[in-house]
TrEMBL record:
This is Non-homologous end joining protein Ku. The lineage of its organism: Bacteria, Bacillati, Actinomycetota, Actinomycetes, Kitasatosporales. Residues 223-235, 251-272 have a biased composition (Basic and acidic residues). It comes from Streptomyces wadayamensis. Keywords: DNA damage, DNA recombination, DNA repair, DNA-binding. Residues 52-181 form the Ku domain. Residues 314-325, 370-382 have a biased composition (Basic residues). Residues 221-382 are annotated as: Disordered. It comes from the Bacteria.
């Protein structure tokens, strides 16, 4: 691994000779500028504006442009006289928890390699101290003509260093925040959580640059003199979705479909749709078929039970009523018969009295004393 800087880590009174190497590599496809008329390369030459001629690198120095546009020359002697103790030293100034480092501050990543066998022991000491303390080291170092801030942490068995932006270089996020107040509903958050759960975790090693691969394939096809393979057209959406809920629901369905998790649900939905269509067709044909939801069936069943219970109760109640009615009619009949009996007995007793009185009258008429009284009464009236 090629090093880009040599120096030492200053850990208190311990000095650890190290070499700095890039921890990342760019696979981006680079292009050259050409003249479209004949394909010639376009090159930049360092030309002096005053003499209008190309200047070699040995005659090029540094200068600071003032606010009025004037250039103030800065020599290497001027820069060397500045107090820069971290020119060849990574000076550790503190140890902090990694959570205190904002990812916005993190820049380029480097590996710190041991520079010589004697440096292996102190290197391993610092590495294991960082690992056990679960903290990171904050350090200052100089690279490419300027002092920088760095963070040292353990990656496997290597100490890695990330350049950090100085705190005053981080812009405030308030300028990027939405200017209007937005209220997010719980239902929308639930759908967002469902989408996050559906997308799930991912193996970062499986991610790759599709655009770079397409560019490399196109270049290879041109070199071989063949036509590039047609690019796959991206899936066309259904248009701009204004409703956030609809967008979230569509995203969840699409994510499940891409992972093969929504086939059963889609089949269920299709079956429900087909069932509804077939039910509608059978209803149109005159078949007494009705599809009800489970909740409707439960409510209907409850009403049917209640109506059945009330009907059975009415039947149970009607039986005693019938008995009472029957008893009432029987008592009425007995009362009528008893009244009839009483009237009959009254008539018979009246007849007996009349008969007896008749017989008494007859007896009175046949009496001779009565006849005499009657004759004397008639004589008086005459």
């Amino acid at each position: 691994m090629q090093s880009i800087w040599n120096g030492a880590i200053s850990f208190g009174l311990v000095s650890i000779p190290v070499k700095l190497a890039n921890a990342t590599v760019s696979h981006a496809v680079s292009f050259r500028q050409i003249h479209t008329e004949d394909g010639g390369r376009i090159r930049y030459r360092k030309v002096c504006e005053l003499e209008e001629k190309e200047v070699p690198s040995s005659e090029i120095g540094k200068g600071f442009e003032d606010a009025d546009g004037s250039i103030i020359p800065i020599t290497e002697e001027d820069l060397a006289s500045l107090p820069l103790p971290t020119t060849r030293t990574i000076d550790i100034v503190a140890f902090v928890e990694s959570e205190r480092i904002d990812p916005l501050q993190m820049g380029n990543a480097y590996y710190l390699m041991v520079n010589g066998a004697p440096a292996a022991k102190p290197y391993a000491l610092l590495r294991e101290a960082l690992r056990r303390s679960e903290r990171v080291a904050i350090a200052k170092f100089a690279l490419r003509g300027r002092e920088r801030l760095g963070m040292l942490r353990v990656v496997d068995d290597v100490i890695a260093m990330h350049t950090l932006h100085w705190p005053d270089e981080i812009r405030s996020p308030e300028e990027a925040a939405p200017e209007t107040d937005v209220t997010v509903r719980d239902a929308e958050l639930d759908l967002a959580d469902a989408l996050m759960d559906t997308l799930g975790d991912v193996d970062l090693d499986s991610l790759h640059d599709d655009y770079r691969e397409a560019v490399e394939e196109m270049v290879t096809a041109k070199v071989e003199g063949r036509e590039p393979a047609p690019e796959k057209e991206p899936a066309q959406g259904e248009g701009t979705v204004i409703d956030l809920m609809s967008a979230l629901e569509s995203s969840v369905r699409e994510a499940k479909r891409s992972r093969g998790e929504g086939e059963g649900e889609d089949a269920g939905e299709k079956g429900g749709e087909n069932g509804g269509e077939n039910g509608g067709e059978s209803g149109e044909k005159g078949k007494d078929a009705e599809v009800t939801s489970l909740s409707s069936r439960r409510r209907t069943g409850t009403r049917a039970k209640s109506s059945t219970g009330s009907g059975s109760g009415a039947k149970k109640k009607s039986a005693p009523a019938r008995k009472k009615a029957a008893g009432g009619s029987g008592s009425g009949k007995s009362a009528a018969s008893s009244s009839r009996g009483k009237s009959g007995s009254g008539r018979s007793s009246t007849a007996k009295k009349t008969a007896s009185s008749g017989s008494g009258t007859k007896k009175t008429a046949s009496s001779p004393t009565t006849k005499k009284k009657t004759a004397s009464a008639r004589k008086r009236s005459a």
